[in-house]
Design brief:
Chain A is mostly helical. Chain A has 2 domains: 16-136, no CATH class; 164-316, no CATH class. Chain A has 15 helices and 3 strands. Chain A starts with a strand and ends in a 16-residue tail after the last helix. Chain C has 3 domains: 25-111 and 285-360, Ubiquitin-like (UB roll) (Roll); 125-282, Rossmann fold, CATH 3.40.50.11540; 375-445, no CATH class. Chain C has helices at residues 125-134, 147-151, 175-182, 184-198, 212-222, 242-250, 270-282, 312-318, 359-362, 375-379, 386-394, 398-403, 414-418, 425-445, and strands at 25-27, 33-37, 47-48, 55-56, 61-64, 73-74, 79-88, 94-102, 161-166, 202-208, 228-233, 265-269, 288-294, 302-307, 326-331, 338-339, 353-358. The chains are: A mainly alpha, B alpha+beta, C alpha/beta.
């Protein structure tokens, strides 16, 4: 029997699955780096986060919504990995599980599942954990080479936290910078921080892969990073004794992870070029405001969540350039 | 401290007072006189805001009713299909007039192109929208006049009165129908018609809208009206007319004698809610065996199942149709 | 190669699959019976002038275009009118047609059916347009808009460029490609005729870069025809859309809801140029056309020259039969073509190809939730937001759809092609366009 349907009769090779697994591939360099620096603990957190994200999605879809189960589409897998990336590697296991429940159950499924959530699920979980368990969420293990133990490790502050604390205690910038990791160390990720955010290099590598595979577009990462760079550059230029330099700001904290993987989440970012640029600008701005004047040393997650909430407005305001808007020739009236 | 409290009380109180005074004057200066009967009429209406009366919502109907009553001293042309005669009597009483009784109406689906009567020739994939499918192609069974079965009428209904029968792929009207006409407008092929409900819900109609000659019509659907004219000849009340190979029964003239039903060679004419006829010589109407068995289960549930006119009429067309899940709801 | 011209917004690149690109155009024998539908052009159907039993010759007028946007129709064969009846058209609707039983191949007097090239033009613009009108020529690219209407520049407007569309951006189709290779000089003369009819002195032939042989051939020919130039353009779908091609060649954008004449352009298909040549220089009305029969499972993908009214079955047989696993027959290309109801449909003036699709490719993939990836927005060549328009149409928000310019949609299908969630975006866009169009018409009536 012949089939009748409207044109087009062919379909490209895009699929939701392909996009999600593309993101997973792009996350792999950062996964390797985190395992390298944080060892078995990183593996533990990663596995727990992924398995429980998938589990919660499965159980909710099957028994609560009683709809089709779509855990194989890869979206819960991505959320799981990103959640693990956003927590310290020595976080107690049960907290990771709570995080997975918040990410999938509250931030994603309660809005209607894939494509309908307003906020990035992994970030909602991170912020939930941060405000609920501030101590555990801010005791960062020191980066070592393949630490094999699962026991307590030596913890220390992140570079951003160190600066904030130091400045608060009245120490001078010159004094503080001596104890900071070098740019090279920061680039490869040899510093304290959440397990996925430390290595700027690995994250950039993943970002380039996603750009090439057309999973993300350049607008959001570039505008976030550029805003942070310019903003912190201006502050540093005004008073280098009080503010950190722009390169340091780019390489530390969750900025790279946020700009490349979290802010570019398709579901929670704007659709048009103009909208994406504004979205990125907003994230960069809020991040710097929190870093410099806020109570927290780091503000990328808050910045992204805040900007997530205005995405519908941005989408309404920024329309794509319509064909015919610039005729290129004087029209005969 | 006391001072602060006193000042705030004075300031806020003063503000409130000034606003009240302003509001009072504005309200009295810009007062719009409105006939109080409009509110009363609106109260009497069913508040379905379905638009079935031709006005956008019950309020608009009430305004028009009161205006017309004042200017023309009549309510002619105004009718609330949802509320029916009862509501119209109330409305008339409010404005101090009398209204004529309207015969109650119901939406009637004039297609019987079930999968058995009009076997699928192609397979359709795409948006569940009759409007879209109508522009795309003729229909899975090949009939370009018949029901596409994608449920635009179901989506248009505000009263939960029309549903898809998954067995037949055709919509079924139940007794919640208020004859508001939304489904009539929604159907891109004008298959649904508002007809007189008839005494004790008895009615006879041609369940086909195919305007083609007999042969091609019949080729696509075995219960199509072929325009043979037998019903027109047998009708004693001039109720049946045939235009472009399609019979139409005027429900104002039809006396429900059922003669046309008997002579129709393709069983395209339907009688509903009649008592079963005394068995006469069995008519030779194409009826597939397995379909007949299925009918035993479903015929009392839904109008729209084939072949009921020769095996006796459906006694209660509406029973159980709420249970039928709508195909397009998924 | 440098940077090739193309349009800037959106666009996709589906696999080209030009299976029949090097197959010479084959002239098919005349079938024993032809069915000539009366509504072959955009606008009002033609009015039949013959009745049952009439003898007709090939090229004889059998139906006339009565209203402004309508075209004449000529008998493609000689024989006897069997009857006037409804026949199933591409969408399965039965519509009026003239059915002719073929008897020999006698042509109407005055038609030159030799292959001799006549390149002298000694007619005025009005005479050319009249001849085009008489010959019943419509846009051969598929839109079937009557050509003579397009050639009559509305008062107050002035055409500056004639653009000949040899892009053929649809995958699989090669009819225009072969025509350019085999009928180059005729296309050139046809282009000159169109230029004279429009009173323009510049014509650009736009050809996609995947047809280097056609580009080379026509560039060589263009040297000896004043005012005609050949411009290769990048391979990108939908470059063959009028508005996209003008943008690519001249960097001009036709404003929303306006026609190309607003920016001084008239676009004609190469097939139309060829038909105009035949009509004006040879007095031959439009009664045959080149059509590609193709598909991955087709044994002999071919380009055929057939008479209008030939049943598609006849063509498929000439391409060595319907493959067993055919799940879809498409009239036209895979991006904008129409899925056909049966193979008994006749060839019409707008048929550019028949694509036979195997069952495994003929079904849509399962629809998933929109993940707001914005790929549809990126792919839309008109700068629309297909996801938003589809959602508006689904929710019956036709006011919103109209405000978001749903009527600008050219139905190219790029959005649906690229959607990772397999949402039938274009289905809903068509639904929305249908409804919004109705609303606009109702408003104009008031």
């Amino acid at each position: 029997m012949l089939t009748i349907s409207g044109s087009p009769h062919i379909h490209g090779d895009n699929s939701t699955k392909k996009i999600m697994y593309g993101v997973v591939v792009a996350l792999m360099p950062a996964v390797l780096v985190s395992v390298y620096f944080f060892g078995l603990n990183a593996v533990r957190v990663l596995l727990l986060s992924v398995i429980f994200s998938l589990f919660f999605e499965w159980i909710i879809q099957k028994y609560l919504i009683k709809g089709p189960v779509t855990i194989t589409d890869g979206s819960a897998l991505v959320t799981g990995i990103l959640l693990a990336f956003n927590v310290p590697s020595n976080l107690p296991s049960w907290m990771v599980i709570v995080g997975a429940l918040v990410a999938i159950g509250i931030a994603k499924m309660s809005f209607g599942g894939l494509g309908k959530n307003i906020f990035n699920p992994a970030l909602v979980a991170r912020v939930f954990l941060l405000v609920s368990f501030p101590v555990q969420m801010t005791s960062w293990p020191k980066a070592a080479v393949l630490p094999m133990g699962l026991a307590d490790v030596i913890t220390g502050p992140t570079p951003l936290g160190f600066i904030k604390e130091g400045l608060g205690a009245g120490k001078s910038m010159a004094e503080l910078t001596q104890h900071l990791p070098s740019y090279m160390q920061a680039l490869v990720g040899q510093m304290g921080g959440s397990m996925g955010e430390v290595s700027a290099l690995a994250l950039i590598l993943g970002g380039l892969y996603m750009l090439r595979k057309k999973i993300i577009t350049w607008e959001i990462p570039v505008s976030v990073l550029l805003t942070v760079f310019v903003f912190s550059g201006i502050l540093w230029w005004i008073n280098p004794g009080k503010f950190t330099d722009p390169v340091f700001n780019l390489l530390t904290g969750g900025l790279m992870l946020g700009a490349i993987f979290m802010a570019t989440d398709m579901v929670t970012s704007p659709m048009t070029r103009g909208g994406k640029l504004i979205f990125g600008f907003g994230i960069g701005l809020i991040t710097m405001l929190i870093r410099v004047w806020g109570a927290y040393p780091e503000g990328v997650s808050f910045a992204i969540l805040l900007m997530n909430s205005v995405v519908p407005l941005i989408d309404r305001g920024f329309k794509p350039r319509r064909f015919g808007a610039r005729p290129g020739v004087e029209l005969i009236k | 401290m006391n001072n602060v409290i006193l000042i705030s009380v004075a300031v806020l109180g003063g503000l409130g007072l000034i606003s009240a005074v302003i509001l009072y004057f504005v309200a009295s200066k810009f007062k719009v006189y409105e006939d109080p009967r409009i509110d009363e009429v609106e109260e009497a209406l069913p508040s379905a805001n379905c638009g079935g009366c031709g006005f956008p919502g019950c309020r608009a109907f009430a305004e028009n009713a009161v205006r017309q009553a004042k200017n023309e001293k009549s309510l002619d042309g105004l009718f609330c299909p949802v509320g029916g005669n009862e509501v119209m009597q109330k409305v008339a009483a409010i404005v101090g007039l009398e209204v004529e009784e309207h015969a109650p109406m119901i939406a009637v689906v004039r297609c019987n192109g079930t999968a058995a009567h009009s076997p699928d020739k192609v397979n359709f994939e795409g948006a569940t929208s009759c409007t879209f499918a109508n522009a795309l192609y003729s229909g899975e069974g090949g009939c370009q006049y018949g029901c596409l079965g994608l449920g635009d009428c179901v989506a248009a209904c505000e009263f939960d009165a029309i549903h898809m029968n998954p067995e037949t792929g055709l919509p079924v009207v139940n007794d919640k129908c208020t004859a508001c006409g939304a489904c009539v407008i929604a159907c891109p092929r004008d298959i649904i018609e508002l007809r007189k409900k008839g005494p004790r819900d008895k009615r006879i109609f041609v369940s086909c809208v195919n305007k083609e000659k007999g042969a091609p019509a019949k080729k696509n659907c075995e219960v199509a009206c072929i325009g043979c004219g037998k019903c027109e000849k047998v009708c004693e009340f001039d109720a049946i007319t045939i235009t472009s190979f399609l019979a139409y029964i005027d429900f104002e003239k039809c006396k429900l004698c059922r003669k046309c039903v008997e002579v129709c060679p393709t069983s395209a004419i339907w009688e509903v809610n009649f008592k079963p006829r005394k068995p006469k010589a069995e008519k030779t109407v194409p009826l597939k065996k397995n379909e007949e068995d299925k009918m035993q289960n479903t015929v009392t549930q839904a109008i729209g199942i084939k072949g009921q006119s020769q095996t006796g009429s459906v006694n209660k067309e509406v029973v159980g149709s709420e249970h039928i899940k709508n195909k397009s709801e998924k | 190669m440098g940077f090739l011209k193309t349009f800037t917004l959106g666009g996709i690149h589906p696999p080209e699959n030009k299976l029949s690109a090097n197959k010479f155009i084959e002239v098919l024998p005349i079938p024993p019976r032809v069915m000539v539908p009366l509504g072959q052009n955009l606008g009002a159907p033609s009015k039949a002038l013959v009745k049952r039993g009439d003898k007709v010759k090939a090229g004889q007028l059998i139906a006339s275009g009565e209203s402004f946007i309508s075209a004449n129709l000529h008998s493609p064969v000689s024989g006897t009118v069997f009857k006037l009846d409804n026949v199933v058209d591409a969408s399965g609707y039965r519509r009026p047609a003239v059915i002719i039983n073929v008897d020999g191949d006698k042509w109407e007097d005055g038609i030159d059916i030799s292959d001799k090239l006549i390149s002298d033009i000694n007619l005025t613009a009005e005479e050319i347009i009249q001849k085009v009108k008489t010959a019943g020529i419509v846009g051969m690219g598929g839109a079937t808009f009557p050509t003579h209407v397009k050639l009559m520049v509305p008062p107050g407007k002035k055409a500056e460029y004639l653009i000949i569309n040899g892009v053929e951006c649809e995958p699989y189709l090669t009819a225009d490609h072969r025509l350019m290779l085999e009928k180059g000089p005729e296309i050139m003369v046809g282009t000159q005729l169109l230029m004279r009819a429009l009173k323009v002195d510049k014509a650009i032939i736009g050809i996609e870069n995947n047809k280097p042989d056609a580009i080379g051939h026509l560039t060589e020919l263009a040297k000896s025809y004043a005012g005609i130039s050949v411009q290769p353009v990048m391979v990108k779908y939908p470059q063959g859309g009028e508005k996209q091609l003008i943008k690519a060649l001249l960097n001009r954008e036709v404003p929303s809801t306006k026609l190309p004449i607003e920016v001084g352009c008239v676009v004609q298909n190469v097939g139309t140029a060829f038909a105009v040549y035949e009509a004006v220089q040879k007095n031959k009305p439009l009664i045959d056309r080149i059509i590609t029969v193709t598909g991955k499972a087709v044994k002999k993908p071919s380009n055929f020259k057939v008479r209008i009214g030939t049943p598609l079955k006849f063509l498929i047989e000439a391409a060595e039969g319907l493959p067993e696993n055919t799940g879809k027959i498409i009239g036209g290309g895979p991006m904008m073509g129409k899925a056909l109801f049966s193979e008994d449909v006749p060839v019409v003036k707008g048929s550019s190809g028949i694509l036979l699709m195997p069952v495994e490719e003929s079904h849509r993939k399962e629809e998933g939730p929109c993940i707001r990836c914005s790929k549809c927005t990126e792919a839309c060549p008109m700068g629309l937001e297909p996801f938003l328009l589809a959602r508006a149409a689904r929710a019956s928000r036709y006011d919103m759809a109209e405000k978001e310019r749903i009527m600008d949609c050219i139905e190219c299908g790029s959005c649906q092609y690229t959607c990772p969630a397999n949402i039938p975006l274009l289905d809903y866009l068509r639904l929305g366009k249908n409804k919004v169009g109705g609303l606009i018409r109702a408003r104009h009536k008031k």
